[in-house]
Amino acid sequence: MKRFAPASAAGSLGRERVGERGPRRRRITTLETISVDVPESALEVYEAALSSACFAVGFFREHNTGTWRVEGVKAVGGDASALAAALALAGEVSGVRPSLQRTPTAAEGWLAKSYASFPEQRIGRRFSVRGTHLCNPPSTGRLGLTLDAGLAFGSGEHGSTRGCVRALELVAWRRPRRILDLGTGSGILAMAAARLLHRPVLATDIEPWSVYVARENVSLNRLRRLVRIRLANGWRHVTVRAGGPYDLVLANILARPLSLMACQLAAHMAPGGTAILSGLLQSQSRSVLAAHLRCGLRLEANLQEGVWATLILRRSASAAPRVALGQNTSSVSTRCNRGHAYDRRRTPGRKRAPSLPVTSRCRTVHGRSSSPSPA
């Protein structure tokens, strides 16, 4: 699930522009919210275009269409020529010329309402998530994460994010060493894992803007030493494959891609490794779980946050991951308990022989069996 917040006048703000430039403004009596719907390739140029005339700009993604809505708050009639010129330039640069929508906005207390919509979030037993606008002392006895009030959606408000953080607390006792956050968005789950476990985390996302947002948040929380952010298309990227096998994988995306990548996930998990999956509704959890059970993982827990489900799955400490028939993958890498990697070549659609446990294959190579790792 891509994690960016709406930036309406009463919602989370994107980048605050109050008092940054120009002469002192007279008292504003009437405001309006302007917005455009654009593809991701035009997101940055239209965010800059609206920033030229608006006090605050924000953006969010429409999951049904994949387009982005960029919104800004401005005085009615103010900077009309500058806005027109900026929109024309954005259209020339991007090749996208969306229609501009206008909505009246209450002037009184719009900034305060925006900040009020992002209070400190307490998640689970250990974490608190705070916006940069909060001045009061943080909650004592909790691990704090700071996010811009509207820079990213993964702020702890969404049920899938909260479920993943709760699941992370439940499995932390296993002390995973190799950790991956797949589809990191704001970077909140990667930062939570790094802060709780004090271990390096590889965090990836398919969208360049998500990578930018996550890097900003990692720097804000002084976690650059532990969290690496990379632009990567899931398991296809060499950095993601090379970082395995993973003891812990966090994936808060959507039900369909989770199901499609189930066997790739299982193949890149270490024996006894854990996967925390979310971004799916409770009504979707059975189909997502079935896809992963077919690939050799087992269910440990299904956490519920409202209508959202979070699955905690685990790979057996000894069994090799399975690959579903017809899965379009050229090879699947597995490792024995001594760390040796083996590639089993696949031809899509060809019936395969039953897979041997890792320890059995290891015996054929090393002449003896490795003792399985503890669960």
Question: What features would you describe in this structure?
Answer:
- The structure is a single chain.
- With 375 residues, the protein is α/β, with parallel strands linked by helices.
- The protein is 27% helix and 27% strand.
- It folds into three domains: 102 residues, Alpha-Beta Plaits; 163 residues, 3-Layer(aba) Sandwich (Rossmann fold); 50 residues, no CATH class.
- The protein is built from eleven helices and 17 strands.
- A hairpin with a 2-residue loop joins β14 and β15.
- The longest helix is centred in the first third of the chain and has 15 residues.
- The relative contact order is 0.10.
- The N terminus and C terminus are likely disordered.
Strand coverage percent: 25-35%
Provide the helix percentage. Answer: 25-40%
Tell me the major beta sheet: 7 strands, mixed
Count of structural domains: 3
Shape: globular
- Rg from Cα: 23 Å
Q: In terms of per-residue confidence, which ranges show pLDDT below 50 for 5 or more consecutive residues? A: 1-26, 149-153, 324-375
* CATH domain topology of the largest domain: Rossmann fold
Q: Please give the CATH class of the largest domain.
A: Alpha Beta
Q: Can you count the beta strands?
A: 17
What series of H and E elements makes up the topology? EEHEEHEHEEEHEHEHEHEHHEHEEEEH
- What is the count of helical runs? 11
CATH architecture call of the largest domain:
3-Layer(aba) Sandwich
CATH superfamily of the largest domain: Vaccinia Virus protein VP39
**What's the overall average pLDDT, rounded?**
75
* Protein structure class: alpha/beta
What is the distance, rounded to the nearest whole angstrom, between the alpha carbons of the first and last residues? 30 Å
**How are the strands of the biggest sheet laid out side by side?**
11-10-9-12-13-15-14
